Amino acid sequence: MTWKTGRSPFASLAVGTVMFAAAPVVIAMAPYEATMGLAGKIFYFHVPAWIVMFAAIFVCGTASGIHLFRERPEADRLAVAAAEVTVLFGLMGLITGPLWGRVSWGTWWPWDVRTTLALILEMNFIAYLLLRKYGGPGSDKLAAGLALFGMFNVPIVYLSVNVWRTLHPPTTVVPNLPLTMGVPFLWCVLAYLALFLVMLGGRRQLEEQRASVDRLWLAYDED
User: Is 15 part of any domain?
Assistant: First the structure.
């Protein structure tokens, strides 16, 4: 995606806006879950938020690895942008999860393996952003290592419900959704991904502009 032409961002924004506008209608048409009723439709917000969070983590981790081992400033700027998106969508997942869990489990937060690991993963990328802001010289390399650590933990978080005994539903739920629920779910995932692309591109562009301003300041000081 090219964010310098001025066309692609608006096209992605338009697609994302249309999909988000239609999402409530699509979700309303989906059938109720047998045991949870209306509260079960939180699923259409919660799971896509985590899917996008995992996608953002892999972007952040991959870009951080490139910056760490090949010293590419543009990759570092992409990593920062992806880390902020990671924290945002992770927060969405951590808010919608307890809303669902209160109805399903009778408690807001069970402290089982999946929920605890998800919280730690979110805190990992909050720490990344704090390190970038307050860590001083060399913090970009330390933060890159933290991003790689977070990325390698994603499979552990995802598979935790299959390995350990946990209240959280297993990973087999989504692939086995009936068509009447699977289509609305896919729609919501694509809508979230469209929003992710818009946010990531815009945030990366901001980092590029900041880098340009820094170069101008350095040139001005040398003169």
Answer: no
In a domain, 100, yes or no: yes
DSSP per-residue letters across 49-87: HHHHHHHHHHHHHHHHHHHHHH--HHHHHHHHHHHHHHH
Domain count, the chain: 1
For residue 200, the enclosing domain spans 42-218
**DSSP for residue 100:** H
Q: Token pair of 115, please?
A: 């929920």
Cβ 102 vs Cβ 115: under 8 Å: no
Distance separating alpha carbons of residues 86 and 121, to the nearest angstrom: 10
Q: pTM to 2 decimals?
A: 0.88
pLDDT tens, residue by residue, 16-26? 788 878 888 88
Residue 127 C-alpha from the chain's centroid: 15
Residue 4, in any domain of the structure: no
